[in-house]
Every structure is written in structure tokens, then in C-alpha cells.
Amino acid sequence: MNGAGRRASSGPSIQKVPTKPRAAAFRRASGAVFVARARAMGINNSRPRGDAALIDGKAIAAAIREEIKAEVDALKKAHDGRAPGLAVVIVGARKDSQTYVRMKRKACEEVGIVSFHKELPETATEEEVLDVVRGFNADDACHGILVQLPLPKHMNEERVLAEISLEKDVDGFHPENIGKLAMKGHEPLFVPCTPKGCIELLKRSGVELAGKNAVVVGRSNIVGMPAALLLMKADCTVTVVHSKTKDPRRICREADVVVAACGSAEMVKRDWIKPGAVIIDVGTNGVDDPTKKAGYRLVGDVDFENVKKVASQITPVPGGVGPMTICMLLSNTLESGKRAFAA
Ligand code: GUN
User: What is the reported pTM?
Assistant: First the structure.
């Protein structure tokens, strides 16, 4: 089987380390003549030898946002200036949630999607949140509803998510959408944004998925579980590694594609990775770093500095999966708007 990280000729404009046999010969060789010949063949040798190519989520997300903006503009022209609308509901005052919500609203604005905002205090009751959701369900100007998670502990998250109208479930968390994601012969109306972003990164980086071994590290409802289902839909052979898995290193070493979403800083080490594997790192963990002004820095679930020495392609943190999540939310909202306008 070819390594999943074998280069495709039509990936995004990412500098990739050669992994083809002829490129390997160039790597072994030294001297300008080989470098020049490799460049003439479209192989970029400017990276330090042996390092994985970066999957630049920031650049890919920017390109997708442009595509979405163009579609929103066209939709508005065709429908008397009406644009898709997204309602974002936040309960409580978690700083991280507030930041995410602010970013989501800003991203909407940038592509011409109308955003509605509802903020409730930490002390709100579940019934009050349900009422807000019901209000947006009934609002024709709103095509997508997102309730920022986590909700305060006294609320039943499942009940709130299940209240969101199936046609407006742009997060893809409604049990019926998740159920359809899991079933052959069914398609969900929406796919959860972060896993959808992971698959999009793989596709746009020229990674062939059919027949490949994929390992997902983590089984959360938001990322790990739907990512595994999506990889299965893409004809991968999928294994999910979780907190009770025996010998995760041995299982990961079989993977052509690793999606790390365990929420544990730099847990996936170099000796977990098969040479040439493609690594998608969903983690964003703050670790103390007195050299930084903020006193901390963000790292992923993958030991990036060491893993990049054996992988063929890898997402950085930040700048990998992160920018894709919001982008996929915009994409789902656009899709929902198009369906509503076509009805
Ligand atoms: N909290 C963390 N990630 C997400 C997400 O993708 N959607 C929602 N609604 N809440 C989140």
C-alpha cells in the first residue's frame, strides 16, 4: 500500500518534503545539481531534510472562506439581498467560550452571513435556554443555530442539542444527524465542524483516504467519534484509541493517518508514528512557558517537534485544524441557507 502521505500533484501550495522513490534518491544525494533537478520536477527541497510538510490550515481556511463569501454574494443577488443567518447562543461567562463565539460572529460578518447573538447568565435555567432555541427554530431569518458547549453543569446538554431543529443543526450534534453519519445509506444534513475540517484538510492536501489505516485518538462526541465515522465513510479502516486502550503506541504505529483529539498535551510521541504517516492534530492545550508574554503557549495533542521528523505531512498548532472549525461552520450555515432559499 502506498503511504497515505505520498504526495499528490494537486495539493494546496504547501511545501512538501519529497517521499517518492525518485525524491528519496535526491534526498540521499547532495549538491546543487540535484536540488536544481528536483525543483525542475516540482519537488521543493527547501525544507530541512526529513521534516514533514506543514498542512497550513490557516491558508486553506482563508481560501475556503473566499469561496464561501462568493457563494453568499451570489445567493444574496439571487434572493433580494437575503443572506443566510446563524444564531449563536452562549450560556455563562467562560473566557474560552466567549472568545470562540466572538470569532464565530466575526467570521460570519466577513463572509456576509448574518449573525444573531443570545447571551444567557450562568444561572439561567435549562428551560430558558430551550425557549431561546425554540425562538430561533421559529425564526425564518435564521438558518443555523449553535449552542456553545460546554453548557453549565446543571443543564442537560443532550436535551438542549436535541431541541435544535434538524434543519438548523449546523453543529451536526443532533442525535439524528449523528445517527445518519453512522449509518450506511444515510447522509446527515450537517456534519460536525471540527471533524469535517479535518477531512477537508486531508482532501485539500492530496491525501488519498480509501483503503488507508486511520487511527483516531480520542472518542469525544464533538471530535473523536464523528471523525472516526467520517473516516469510515471515506473508506478508511478505522481504529479508535481511548483512555482504556491497551498499548495505544502499537495501534498508532499501524496508522497511515492519525487524527489526535484526546485533549492531552503532546501525548502522541514520535515512536507512535509510522514513517510517512499524515498527522492531523486537533488539540489545543495551554502549557506554562515563562518565555512568553502570556506565560503560556499552545501545543497540540502531538509532540510536534519530534513527530514532524517521521511524518510526511502534519498540521501545526496553532494554525492547523483550529481555523478550519469556524470555516466549516460557515460552510454548514451557507448550505442550510441554500436549502431554505431553494424550498
Ligand atoms: N465547544 C467546543 N467546540 C465546539 C463546537 O464545535 N460546537 C459547539 N457548539 N461548542 C463547542
Answer: 0.85
